[in-house]
Amino acid sequence: MRTTDVVVIGSGFGGLAAAKQLAKSEVETVLISATPEHLFQPLLYQVATGVLSADEIAPPIADVLADKESVSVMHGRVTAVDAAAKVLTVETDQGDEQVRYESLIVAAGANQGYFGHDEWADRTFSLKTLDDAVALRAHLLDCFTTQTDEAAHTFVVVGGGATGVEVAGQIRELGARYFTDAPAKVYLVEGAGDLLPVYGGRLSTFTRKTLEKAGVDVLTDTFVTDIETDSVTVRSVDGQQRVLDARTVVWSAGVKATPLAGVIAEATGCETDRAGRLLINPDLTVGGCADVFAIGDMTSLNNYPGQSPVAMQQGRHAADMVRGATPRGTAFRYLDKGSMAVVNRHNAVVDAPFGIKLTGILGWFTWLGVHLFYLVGFRNRVGAVVSWCRSFLGTARPGFDEVVTVPVDAMAVGEDDHGEAQTTAA
Ligand SMILES: Cc1cc2nc3c(=O)[nH]c(=O)nc-3n(C[C@H](O)[C@H](O)[C@H](O)COP(=O)(O)OP(=O)(O)OC[C@H]3O[C@@H](n4cnc5c(N)ncnc54)[C@H](O)[C@@H]3O)c2cc1C
Asked: Can you give the residue ranges of the External alternative NADH-ubiquinone oxidoreductase-like C-terminal domain (predicted)?
């Protein structure tokens, strides 16, 4: 059995921040992740719409941590945790392995939630993993370049949060600027009364007006009630029902914790909320276990948003307690540095501290700068700048060059994996 001081589970924002912080004290750490890359989720929609290539937002986690000698990386999925014995089981390509730890930091993220309609997972595209983005990219290219009927050129995006707004804006631009022979009809469906409801006020109004001006049909106060292969049924709060003939539905409306949250809850006696997220203690420990920490999207604490800064700050806080830089039991406090979302080319909204609110091109350049700063790896930053110039100044979509096989058929109801048969990324 392998033994180590600390196990970090997950190579996303929380896991990477924790591992880097632990490396400052050279604490022996094993980072275990089900996916081999560090995925920059906020840019998944740009991979899906051909702006960026897949590897520009997903460097291998082993490369990212290569200079941290006290950290080793293990590729595998944690399936069981014995909190009393401090041993966990990892499913790897070579079979099950066990790892004993002194402290455990879990950052296993979240999956898409479907509000009790899990069958919609097979009828929609989601954007949580790199495979999701690659599958949607191949499907969009297929719709725009090989299919001619109206349903293939009609796209319904469900969820008016940042991801939904960004995806709707970009798909509309694909039809307006790139595949001009095949214009796209795009609906953005949101249950609340406005887009980006957490921003509110003039940022929400600007977002709606900008998208509508670009040609997106914004349906607020509206819920999806049924999804079939070629149609989506929606109903507004005043009871009006509409059937939209569309072959593509991008689902970005709900969140639920990954299955590992249930495993940790059972192992530690921690309670969960309705989305299955762990109701962690103020010091980020889980249940009654002083040596098990959970952070990021798989947890719920003080209504902090499911955003990367929360996961990163929590990762550093947990790591600091483990390495003794912060006393154990110290409550975590989130420092909110603001939120932002791209609406479309040259338009973004920024909700910054001290009441600063930016819109339009100023917001867009702020968004570009911040994302460039946080994108991991010098090569990726350079690559992203080149791709952004080609996409936003010119009319290229370099990411589509990666799609080497495109099927004629769009996704079918009941398919397990829309991506597998459709595409291969170079
Ligand atoms: C499309 C999209 C757009 C977003 N845009 C923004 C944005 O603009 N701004 C912002 O701040 N936030 C944004 N977010 C949210 C942000 O990405 C998350 O808050 C952040 O990724 C959470 O980090 P995490 O470490 O908790 O989980 P993740 O980054 O999701 O990482 C989870 C990790 O756990 C691993 N894992 C899962 N289960 C297991 C297991 N059983 N065993 C081993 N490993 C496992 C996964 O492989 C992965 O490496 C966006 C999210 C999405 C999906």
From this structure: 337-393
Distance of CA 312 from the midpoint of ligand 1 (Å): 11
Q: List residues with catalytic annotation.
A: 166
**Which structure tokens are listed for 103?**
């402290």
Separation of CA 26 and ligand 1 centre (Å): 25
Ligand 1 pocket, 219 CB below 6 A?
no
Q: Give the architecture-level CATH label for domain 2-34+76-111+255-322.
A: 3-Layer(bba) Sandwich (3.50)
CB distance 215 to ligand 1 below 6 Å: no
For the Cβ of 161 lying below 6 angstroms from any atom of ligand 1, the answer is: no
The predicted-structure confidence for 244-288, as pLDDT tens digits, reads as follows 999 999 999 989 989 999 999 999 999 999 999 999 999 999 999
The torsion defined by the Cα of 149, 152, 155 and 158, in degrees rounded to 10, comes to: 130
417's CB contacts (< 8 A; 6+ apart) are: 131, 135
CA atoms within 13 A on the CB side of 301: 24
The domain over range 114-253+337-402 is classified in CATH as 3.30.1330.30: no
112 lines ligand 1 (CB under 6 A): no
User: Which tens digits make up the pLDDT trace of 56-111?
Assistant: 999 999 999 999 999 999 999 999 999 999 999 999 999 999 999 999 999 999 99
Task: Pull the structure tokens for residue 391.
Answer: 């996409």
